[in-house]
Amino acid sequence: MSDTPVIGVLALQGDVREHLVALAAADAVARPVRRPEELAEVDGLVLPGGESTTISKLAVLFGVMEPLRARVRDGMPVYGSCAGMILLADKILDPRSGQETVGGIDMIVRRNAFGRQNESFEAAVAVKGVDGGPVEGVFIRAPWVESVGAAAEVLAEHDGHIVAVRQGNAVATSFHPELTGDHRVHRLFADMVRANGAVES
Asked: Which residues have a catalytic role annotated?
């Protein structure tokens, strides 16, 4: 891989365009991913915010869920924001009927934990590994992490709740950094993808 990783955004539902813009600003080649053959061509993947149940059902429908699980198990870097965090959890506290996860982070997540759409808010969040001060976190029907296993590292907390976690090549945030114009979280992820490519090559 060159210094310019190819990073996909799972483009089944949610704020796909904003992630594509943020990844491009973080010096990555960003492309939408809907099908297994598109997944096979990327070095890393973002699971965007949106409706986690809808995204999981569409991923199964489009035949991308199983190949995605396999690539995450094999160590492909993956980043999930908001609904994407739910998808990366090994366990959801209150899953909707038919809801599946990709898994990859040993954590238990509570859906919509910070309240409904009209209770959305912004807050400054200090994220471990992100230099230059706190990032502005946009929380929209956001989950939080109830607990993490020994392999998972807590990167940030807000109001006593875990809102950012990393395990190996998987990272997740409760909030939406793609909505703020601050691309440091995406840059952190792009650097993880570059580092993974250097190890593989």
From this structure: 82, 176, 178
